[in-house]
Specification:
The chain is of the alpha/beta class. It folds into two domains: 179 residues, NAD(P)-binding Rossmann-like Domain (Rossmann fold, 3-Layer(aba) Sandwich), CATH 3.40.50.720; 125 residues, UDP-galactose 4-epimerase, domain 1 (Alpha-Beta Complex), CATH 3.90.25. It contains twelve helices and 15 strands. The chain has a seven-stranded parallel sheet with strand order 3-2-1-4-5-7-12, with helices on both faces. The protein has a two-stranded parallel ribbon with strand order 6-15. The protein has a two-stranded parallel sheet with strand order 8-11. Helix 1 packs across helix 6 and helix 3 runs parallel beside helix 4. The termini are far apart.
């Protein structure tokens, strides 16, 4: 199949790009070229900014596709642009939405694709919902062959999955654990969370490409395994060979004290126990199962980061903030 991926080199999409290329598809990436050096040799690239609609239209003028995958569409105007660009030019359009769009707070911790979409805490999620609604409308009214995919917390070898971190990613938290300093865990660390390795996500996504049962449908793709935040942080500490020193802080407190905005990422997402029912994706893609166990994936990621200096981005401001919050929490008399 001839497949165009918009983006194609991010945490989720790089694994998909590599797998589709390995499967023998004609894979073309449309992006700005920032990570194209890591691509398989048989992947073609069209370097341009998807925001420049006229330029994209010109460069794709005589091309049609079996599938177009959109990984960097965040607001309705962007999927509206995609509809103009690809209506009549592709047999399938797969849009990456977000599992954070599901109802918060949840009425049932077991999530299916029929769980209502509503997130009052996070504009990012509300924008994703609006994008989905627009695409569903185009499917119903114009037969636009769209498929919606909702990832939850998907990670790769470059970033350890965490609940609380600064703007520069996970390294500073890993470093604090390694140095024997306490780290902040939201809530009491006992809520259940689902993390999915990007290689597992790619297997299910690839099974939706060209799949007649995927047109007009929405799917989430996650692991079947749920772990607590205490387990996630303990696995990191164990791989580093040190004792975990946890400081528990309510999510609402973390959001209230600033300067970091945790309303969306915590109150609108990670503060809630989530368990995903993956029956629908397994019916559409027979044989799919996530095989990277949480402890294995986390350990591999920690090792990769320790071996790659480019993944060790310091965040001194976040480090000082952690020290201040932990000091306050340790001095609260109950």
């Amino acid at each position: 199949m001839k497949i165009l991926l918009i983006g194609g080199t991010g945490t989720i999409s790089m694994a998909i790009t590599k797998l589709l290329a390995q499967q023998g598809h004609e894979v073309i990436l449309l992006n700005r070229g920032y990570r194209n050096n890591d691509l398989p040799e048989n992947v073609r690239t069209i370097q341009c900014d998807i925001q420049n609609e006229a330029d994209v239209e010109k460069k794709l003028a005589d091309m049609t596709f079996d599938c177009v995958g959109e990984f960097i569409g965040f607001v309705p105007s962007q999927v509206e642009r995609d509809f103009r660009l690809f209506s009549g030019k592709t047999k399938q359009y797969i849009y990456i939405s977000s599992a954070s769009a599901y109802q918060k707070p949840l009425s049932d911790c077991i999530i299916t694709e029929s769980t209502p979409l509503s997130n009052p805490h996070w504009q990012y999620s509300r924008d994703k919902i609006a994008c989905e609604e627009y695409l569903m409308k185009q499917y119903r009214e114009n037969g636009f062959p769209m498929t919606i995919v909702r990832p939850s917390h998907t990670y790769d070898e470059r970033s350890v999955p965490l609940g609380v971190h600064g703007d520069n990613g996970s390294w500073q938290v890993v470093k604090r654990i390694m140095d024997g300093k306490p780290v902040i865990i939201h809530g009491d660390g006992t809520s259940l969370w689902t993390i999915t390795h990007n290689s597992d996500f790619a297997k299910a996504y690839a099974g939706l490409v060209g799949n007649i049962h995927a047109i007009g449908q929405a799917f989430h793709i996650t692991s079947d395994e749920s772990v607590t935040w205490n387990q996630i942080y303990s696995i990191i500490a164990d791989e580093l060979g040190v004792e975990l020193k946890a400081c528990y802080v309510p999510s609402s407190v973390l959001n209230a004290i600033g300067p970091y905005d945790f309303e969306g990422t915590l109150l609108g997402d990670k503060a809630h126990t989530v368990i995903f029912d993956n029956s629908k994706i397994k019916r559409a893609v027979p044989g799919f199962t996530a095989t990277v166990r949480a402890d294995q994936g986390i350990r591999n990621t920690v090792r990769y980061i320790l071996d790659h200096k480019e993944c060790q981005t310091e965040d001194e401001e976040f480090d000082r903030w952690c020290d201040k919050v932990i000091n306050v929490m340790n001095n609260i008399k109950i």
